[in-house]
Design brief:
TIM Barrel, two-stranded antiparallel sheet, binds flavin mononucleotide, 8-stranded parallel beta sheet
């Protein structure tokens, strides 16, 4: 199967099938510490977020999703124009396909046409960096979309579930170190739903990675998605629930702030405004979400994205007020109760 068809199938399965983890992201382990005496005027609550020194209207990254097949350009254009209008950052899907077939560049570069000012991140898999990436390809990743940052996704679980997936993960570390030196933009490393442990995060931070997006378990299960695809290989369902819950990743990786300066993104199963607020109380600097956004877009168009964001913003304002906080940055673990 071509990469183009695979990317198309991923979106279709995300929209039509139950591809969620059985295990939860872990946010339900906490409730909020209600403050009956909040010294807050609800109208003064500041919902802004900041990442890599840039300010955004709300701390939500539109996670990397698509590009590289005929309809993907339209999806990217809509996500981009939403991000431009609403002041949110966005990652494009893996650009591997456009490095292999230059006709597919347009489905990625269209993002800049619709979001001339938004923060846009390029995206490539760690497995594609084994043996190093040549300078021309590295420049194309960044220049084709005028990227503000480069996201490297780590997805060994997903690759191993794909009959045609990569099998060699030896050399990814060297590949990441080299590309960090080559690009003159910040590098973000994310998983795709199986999570990043503290030990992995430490290794990445030592290499000079500036942002860790944990993309933990509890949301979209990429093992499930791959196992549901029409394919030659027998499905390996025992891996459908493999991964570290998002909350565990956050609690572990946050401790590294004592040793390193970096931004921490909570993602993997961010489904409600409560998940977003709890992420900050657990030490996140930003959040990111994929599946709810692509569903909202396919079901209700760009309006669906606005409705989702408006709801999360409205509810976050109420939650922050009820916790006695005027901004996301005021949150800390004392605002949570362990259930
Ligand atoms: C349709 C779809 C396509 C995706 N494609 C990519 C991709 O190309 N690169 C990447 O880094 N992550 C990709 N992801 C993973 C997401 O960025 C995210 O890390 C993961 O789905 C967990 O977040 P969620 O639980 O909010 O969906 C994709 C997710 C979806 C739903």
């Amino acid at each position: 199967m071509t990469i183009q068809n695979r990317k198309k199938e991923h979106v279709e399965l995300t929209l039509k099938k139950d591809i969620n983890y059985e295990k939860s992201s872990g946010f339900e382990r906490f409730s909020f510490q209600h403050n009956a005496l909040p010294e807050v005027n609800v109208d003064d609550v500041d919902l802004a977020g900041s990442l890599l020194g840039r300010s955004f209207t709300f701390p939500l990254f539109v996670s990397s999703m698509t590009g590289g097949y005929s309809d993907a350009g339209a999806v990217n254009a809509q996500l981009a124009s939403f991000c431009e209008r609403r002041g949110l950052p966005m990652g494009v899907g893996s650009q591997r396909v456009m490095l292999e077939n230059r006709n597919e560049i347009e489905s990625f570069s269209i993002v800049r046409e619709h979001a001339p000012n938004a923060f846009i991140a390029a995206n490539i898999g760690g497995a594609q960096l084994v043996g190093g990436m040549d300078s021309e390809k590295t420049a194309l990743l960044i220049d084709s979309i005028g990227a503000d940052a480069l996201i490297i996704h780590l997805n060994p679980l997903q690759e191993l579930m794909q009959p045609e997936g990569d099998r060699n993960f030896k050399g990814i570390r060297d590949g990441i170190s080299s590309i960090i030196k080559e690009v003159n933009c910040p590098v973000i490393v994310k998983e795709t739903g199986a999570g990043i442990s503290a030990e992995t995060a430490r290794t990445l931070l030592q290499m000079g990675v500036q942002v860790i997006d944990v993309a933990g378990a509890g949301g979209t299960s990429w093992a499930k998605v791959e196992n549901l695809r029409d394919r030659s290989q027998e499905p390996l369902h025992q891996f459908d629930d493999w991964g570290i819950p998002t909350v565990d990743c956050l609690i572990e990786v946050e401790k590294l702030k004592n040793d390193f300066s970096f931004d921490l993104i909570a993602s993997g199963g961010i489904r409600t405004s409560s998940d977003i607020v709890k992420s900050f109380a657990l030490g996140a600097d930003f959040t990111a979400s994929a599946q709810p956004l692509i569903k909202a877009l396919f079901e209700h168009g760009e309006e669906g994205l606005d409705t989702l964001l408006d709801g999360w913003m409205k509810e976050s304002r109420i939650i922050l007020t009820l916790l006695g906080c005027e901004s996301f940055n005021d949150l800390n673990p004392s605002h949570l109760r362990i259930i």
